[in-house]
Amino acid sequence: MRNLVTMATRLVFLLLLPLLLPAEAWAAAASHPAGTRPIPPSPQRSGDPDAGKRYLLYGDYVNAGVPVGVFRATHALLAGNQLKRTGINRRVPYNFTAVKAPNGATVVGPNCMHCHAGRINGQFILGLGNTHLDFSLDQSAFFPLVDSAMKALHGADSPEWRAYQPFRRAMRVTGPALVTAARGVNPADKIAAVLALHRDPDTLEWHETPKRPVPREVIPTDVPPWWHMKKKHAMLYNGMGRGDFGRIMMASSLLTLHDRRKAEEVDPQFGHVLAFLKSIEPPKWPFALDATLARRGEKIFNQNCAQCHGTYGKKETYPNLLVSLKKVRTDPLLSNAARDPRYNYFFKWFNKGWFGRGKHPAKLVPEGGYVAPPLDGIWATAPYLHNGSVPTLADLLDSTRRPDRWRRTFISRDYDPAKVGWRYTVEPRRRGGATYDTTLPGYSNEGHPFADALTDANRSALLEYLKTL
């Protein structure tokens, strides 16, 4: 009798559920594809986009670095003033910022644009993932040169030397731990995990001795564009960045901040930064389009791709789906590492420490799988997949044609508008960091076979439509 009552109760609940949920929520829950699950939204802070842009371009969220004179003597200066900055920063490359260190010395340190601005087809785009960085080299290797210049120009007991030390110590521990097997990919997911080994979770103070050994593997990622932020319910490719996005983004300050007091000064600014990121629009396709072919491609897209990647145009939708590894079949290493017991220390450090508390807490919630991303401006975001393993969209749409080993020039104008992505040459074997070798763990180009069943003609139409997003 009790079982009959339970079954009846469940039946009544299921019948009433459409009335209890908003229509949009019920439709989303009922329509997402097998092997996917929706990511719920998290409350986000509002802010002033103009203030956020100013803080990104001039702010001291990284407040240690190399004194200006030493920086100019040891770094290749990039031409132009792409960010249209004023003052001393008009002469500093866009991926660095000159700021006042806590002791008053003027120093130059990296900023967010180091990874989140770049060029494609010769065009500089703020918010585009930088796929030209070379982490196949130890980023700390040049510090002996900087040390020598520092001692020669300022001495080892100067305010400049002391202002340099927080940056130096952070690069000394992160540089050797972040070396990738190929140029163009980014080890960002590991940076915070390495720095956490040296910082107290509550006070955020630095400890020279790490709490445990650093995991050896360096898992490559492709840097997503900032203009996707306005659509996302979760950050990071595996969707584990939940809660306050500003709090997650300001983790970049772990590189040099002294303690929690500086973190509490930086934190409010990232509500404004998030507002600015949400204001960024994707760049438009800069070449000719076949409008008739693109219209046919739109129908193919809506029939085959929109359930996971959303719809575009006047009535845009984006479902925020986490796709299981079994369904997407792309390289599993990044997803699996987030659930590896060796990284439990970092999730506990983040979730139970300063970052997971307060008025705007954030959480890291690894569930497995990858987020099906928005596709706005997809033409500019080559290479493709979460690890940057596929050089062009044409290769992405036909998994049988993806190169096993390939090399590109890293010249921003070396763009292929026909295949939509970077021009490349196929390599018979790996030749250093300039070769992308998809046979290496974490670098696989397998998976996402969903367009393989299309005819060549339909793939061409789909490719033409993707140029318009």
Q: Gist?
A:
It contains 18 helices and 15 strands. It is of the alpha+beta class.
Walkthrough of the structure:
This protein is α+β, with helices and mostly antiparallel strands. Helices cover 34% and strands 10% of the residues. The chain is built from 18 helices and 15 strands. It has a three-stranded antiparallel β-sheet with strand order 1-8-10. It has a three-stranded antiparallel β-sheet with strand order 2-4-3. A three-stranded antiparallel β-sheet has the order 14-11-15, with no helix packed on it. Helix 4 packs across helix 6 (143-153) and helix 12 (291-304) packs across helix 18 (456-466). Residues 1-30 have low confidence and may be disordered.
Low-confidence region ranges: 1-30
Which structural class do the helices and strands define? alpha+beta
* Rg, alpha carbons: 23 Å
Shape: globular
Taking strands numbered 1, 2, ... along the chain, how are they ordered across the largest sheet?
A: 1-8-10
Estimate the mean pLDDT confidence: 90
DSSP summary, beta strand count: 15
Report the span from N to C terminus: 58 Å
User: Beta-strand level of the residues, as a percent range?
Assistant: 5-15%
Oligomer: single chain
* Count of DSSP H/I helices: 18
Helical content (DSSP H or I, runs of 4+): 25-40%
Largest sheet: 3 strands, antiparallel
Record keyword descriptors for this entry.
single chain, 469 residues, alpha+beta, three-stranded antiparallel beta sheet, 18 helices, 15 strands, 34% helix, globular, disordered N terminus
